[in-house]
Structure formats: C-alpha cells, structure tokens
Amino acid sequence: MELSIQSTNNQELIDITKEIETLILNSKIKEGICHLYLPHATAALTINENADPNIKTDLLKSLNKMVPLHDNYLHDSIDNNAAAHIKSTLVGVSLTIPISSNTLQLGTWQDIFLCEFDGPRNRNIIINIIQNKQ
Amino acid sequence: MELSIQSTNNQELIDITKEIETLILNSKIKEGICHLYLPHATAALTINENADPNIKTDLLKSLNKMVPLHDNYLHDSIDNNAAAHIKSTLVGVSLTIPISSNTLQLGTWQDIFLCEFDGPRNRNIIINIIQNKQ
Amino acid sequence: MELSIQSTNNQELIDITKEIETLILNSKIKEGICHLYLPHATAALTINENADPNIKTDLLKSLNKMVPLHDNYLHDSIDNNAAAHIKSTLVGVSLTIPISSNTLQLGTWQDIFLCEFDGPRNRNIIINIIQNKQ
C-alpha cells in the first residue's frame, strides 16, 4: 500500500496518524506489525507528541541547530540541500509499530509524522502490514 | 508481550537485554525477528556497549550537548520536557533484532537499553516476535 | 544470511546496495520486508543518496561536529572510541526495507550504506527476509 503526502513548506512535520490507522482498519489484520517506509533522502519519519503542536517547532529548530542549513557542505554546490540529507539519516526513513486488536499500539502521547526537510514536495510512504501467526 | 520498567533517575540508560532474552527463550521461536516498541515520547530504545558502563554516561552527556535541557523551547511552558521529546526522536522508539537458534543475534559488544530522558517514570515495552518461514 | 564487509578507513560510508539486491534476487521472495542488522557498537547502517558521493563526506563531517572525536569521554581511557559508540546510537544499527516484485523498494535517490566510525575493521551484516502472506 502507498500513501501520498504533499508538503507545503520547506520544513514541516505532517501528522499522518489518521491515514495509517485507516489503512490498518481496512486491512482487517488483528495482530502483527506495521512497517512504514519513506523512499526519499531529504525527509524522514518519526513518532512524537502532537497534543502540544509546539513540539514540532521545537524539534525542527533543534535539528537546524545540530545541522545548520548551510555549513560549507560539498553537496550544496550541486543541489542546495545537504542539511536535509543529513537530517534524513539522523531521524531515519522507516518505522515499525505493533498492531494489536486491529489497532496501532501507539502510546497516549505518540503520533506519526512525516518530517519534510526540503519541501514543498510530493512524498510517498510505503506501508506493509505483517501478520503475526501467534 | 509487554515488559514494564521503572526508571529511578531523570536521565539514565537501563539495560534490558536479559529480560528480552528470557522472553525469546520462552517463546520457543527459533528463527525470526524480535521487534521492541516503546509507546512513550520522552524516552527511547537503543543498542550499545555495556561492558564499559561509562559509555552510558558518555552517551547521555553527548546527547545533552546536542540537545540542551533548556533552550527557549516553546513546549517547556506547558510541560518542561521538550529536550526529552527531541532526544526520543533522535534515538528512536523501536528496535528490530534478528533471532537465530532461539537466540538474539546481538554482537559481542551489544546490549539493549531503555533510554530514560524524563524520569523517573514507569515505562512499558511492547515485544513482538515474528517467526521466519524460511 | 550474512554479508561480510571490510572497511579500509577509520571513518567511511560503504555502499552495500548491490550486495543486498543480489541476496533479494537469490531469495526469490516477491513480497515482504528485508531486515538488515549490524551486530557492532561502533558502526551503523543508513540509507541516503550516493548519486553525489559528496554527501558521504558531508554526513561524516556533520556527525563529527555533533559528536567530537574527543570530548573528555570516560570510555576513551579504556578504548579510544567513545565518539564512534555515540554515533552508532544516533544513526542506528538496523534497517527495514520493503520488497515488492522481488525488488527492494528504495527511492530513486536512496542507497544503503554501512557507516564505519572506528575502522578499519571487518563488519558483518545479518539479513532476514520476511515474506508477506498478503
């Protein structure tokens, strides 16, 4: 299964929890794991809190301090997005979340986010649901 | 399966390798993958060395340099733990480890740790063992 | 399955995409997920762009700014590689990539890298391919 997401800013966190929950529901798989994969090198996937939307701002600001947007990166002379590549490696492009009773076992304070580091772009997410035989 | 861990400090790494190895043994699953998931947004899971316990101290100190405890985070006005949320995203909340001959295929210098960034708290870990048909 | 890789530098990114693609081809598994696991605590696995090889240099340089090679780490008095351990936790030691039509679903700009942070050393990668019943 694939999910297509259009980012609208250069950097932003987009909550995709509801879209993934709908796919799980439709799959009718009760017990197993859900694997999300982002086939892009200047974005990432993460899980964090969205009850306070400020965390999204804090996270992007903190990543930009760790990985400045421009810092004499060699890649910037070809494509001006080296920092986005580095942040993609730090955060990661895949997530695996357990499923129980046909429901994602996210914590109370956990939502799933696409992290756009070089938008706006159209991004795809590949979803695999692996059924547990137990 | 779930494992419950009580952290006792505000920040600490807790070695959970033996607990996970016992669950694998009891599962009797010989070949497959073991998936660990932490349903919390201010903690993380990682794999690193514990033969020298100093690595735990070095790792926490280094993370606190990258993500200072207080840095005008917007979320700190609501709940004073924005840095813990950011570190959770950097380290990650899930791990997948191969199983062979009913044993976790950890390297000689690898142990599994719960990373507490906003304790002391009670933390749960959800464990799924996926059998490989090969 | 295991793959053995000899690094030749102290720090380097080694592209292992072709080796993994060959293993998938030989497995004849059409739909599922491919799990890669590195049983080492001073190296990591990541996915990023290799079309411009400069990204490898930018990534290592950026990680070395975030985690200086020497910074009064306690572990350095025992084994002079604390920074390599910390970078292993930041980047991570496992990857899961979907397989469709017997092909890894990597994005156009995605290659798989072994990240050596304390070489030269011989490194193993454990590969599990989980077939999807759907």
Give me a quick take on this structure.
Three copies of one chain form a homotrimer. The first copy, chain A, is α+β, with helices and mostly antiparallel strands and 134 residues long.
Task: Present the secondary structure layout.
3 copies of one chain form a homotrimer.
Chain A (H helix, E strand, L loop, with lengths): L1 E5 L5 E4 L1 H11 L4 E6 L5 E6 L5 H13 L15 H10 L2 E7 L2 E2 L6 E6 L5 E10 L3
Antiparallel strand pairs in A: 1-8, 2-7, 3-5, 3-8, 4-7, 5-6
List keywords for this structure.
homotrimer; 134 residues; alpha+beta; Jelly Rolls; 5-stranded antiparallel sheet; 3-stranded antiparallel sheet; 8 strands
Total beta-strand segments of chain A: 8
Total number of distinct structural domains of chain A? 1
Low-confidence stretches of chain A: none
CATH names the topology of chain A as: Jelly Rolls
Terminal Cα span of chain A: 24 Å
Radius of gyration of chain A: 16 Å
What's the SSE pattern of chain A? EEHEEHHEEEE
Helix content of chain A: 25-40%
